[in-house]
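Chapter review: from sequence to fold.
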Amino acid sequence: MATYLRIWFFALLILLIGAVTLNYWVDPYGLYRPYSEGGWKPNGAAQGELVKPYLVLKHSPHTLILGNSRAEVGFDPADVAWPESAQPIYNLALPGTGTRVARRLFEHVLAAHPPKTIVLGVDFMDFLVSPDVSKKWEPEIIHRLLIMPDGQINNRRWLQMMLDGAITLASLNAVVHSIDTVRVHGKTEVAHLTATGFNPMHDYSRIARNEGYFNLFRQRDIENMRVYQKRSKNLFSRGTHTSPAFDDLTAILDMAHAHGIQVKVVIYPYHAHLLEIFRITNCWNMFEDWKRELTLRVNTNSHNQATLWDFSGYHHFARETVPPVDDKQTIVHSYWEAGHFKKELGHLILARLSGKGEATFGTVLTPANINDHLLAIRQDRIQYESERSAEIIQLEKLIQ
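The C-alpha cell string follows.
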C-alpha cells in the first residue's frame, strides 16, 4: 500500500512540475515572461483583472490609460500619435468597469510610481445610478492592489499573489490555456492582449468578415437598447447632488493635483446608433446633464491640470454608414459596433490630445461653451435625422 501511494505521489509531483514548467514557458496570460508586441497571448485578453495590476507595475508608465473596454480597444500605447515624452505608456483600462475601479487602479499605481499624465475615459452608462446606490461597494480587484480603499497598505496582498500564482501556473485551466496558446501561435485573427495592455480586437476582425458589420451592430444595438431601457434614470444619489461615480472622478482629479499629474478626461466617440438609443430610451436630457456636471467637476477640481474632451456627437465619424444585412464585404473603418471605436479613430483622438489632428473633431468643454456645444450637437442630430430617417425608424423598432 505504501509503495502504491509513493508511486501516486511521485506521479502527481511530476505532473505538477510539468504543468508549472509548461505554463511558465508558454505564459498564456503574459504575466511572467517578457514578450514582443507580436507575441500572442489570446487568453490574456480575457484576464485583464488578473494580469494588469501586476504588469502595470513592471512598466512604471509615464502615461496611464484608464477606463473601460472602449479605452482598452481604442487607445493603443504603440500609436504614433503619442509624443515621445509620453513614453512608456500602459493601457490599464478594464472591460466592464467604471470609475470606482479606475480610482483604485490609479491609487495602486501612485503607490509605486506616479505617472506624469492620465488619459481617463468616462462612459455615460457608468454614471446612471440607483438613487439609493451605496458608496461602500468595492471591486474584488482591490485584493491585488498595493493600497486598500482606506488608504492603508494592503498587507494581505501576498496571499492574493500566491493564489494568482497557483491559478496561472498550477491550475488545469492554465494548462488548457497554454496548449491553446501554442495551438493558435502565429494566427492573426485571435484574441490578444499586447505587452502594454491594449486589445487590438483581432478576433472581431474574423467575426466581421464572416458575419458582416450589420450583424455586429445589430446585436450590440439590441443589447444596448435593453440595457438603457432598464437602467436607472438618475445621475445623483437621493437627496444629494453627487454620486459614487462623480465622487470617484473628483478623487482622481484631487490625487492627480496632489502629485502634479496632468489629466485628460475623454468622453468617448459613440456611434450615432448609440446616441439614438440614448434618445429612444429617454436618456438624452440626462446625457446632456451628465456632460454639464462633468464640465463643472473638471473645471472646479482641475487646478489647471485637467481638461475635459468631448468626442461624442453626430460628427462624420459617428455617422459612418452601417452596411446592409447581406453585405459582408464593406468594412466600417471607425467602429467595431456602436459602442466600441477602433484604434484608427483612437489615433485621431490621441492626435487631438497631443495638440495635433483634425481641429473639428473633439471639443474641450468649459462652463463658458458647454450649452452652445450641446445645442450644436442637437442641430447636428436634426441633420442626421433628415438624412437617415429609415435607419432611425429601424432602431426605434428595436425597443419593442
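Two observations follow directly from the output. The two ends are 68 Å apart (CA to CA). Residues 109 and 161 are 17 Å apart (CA to CA).
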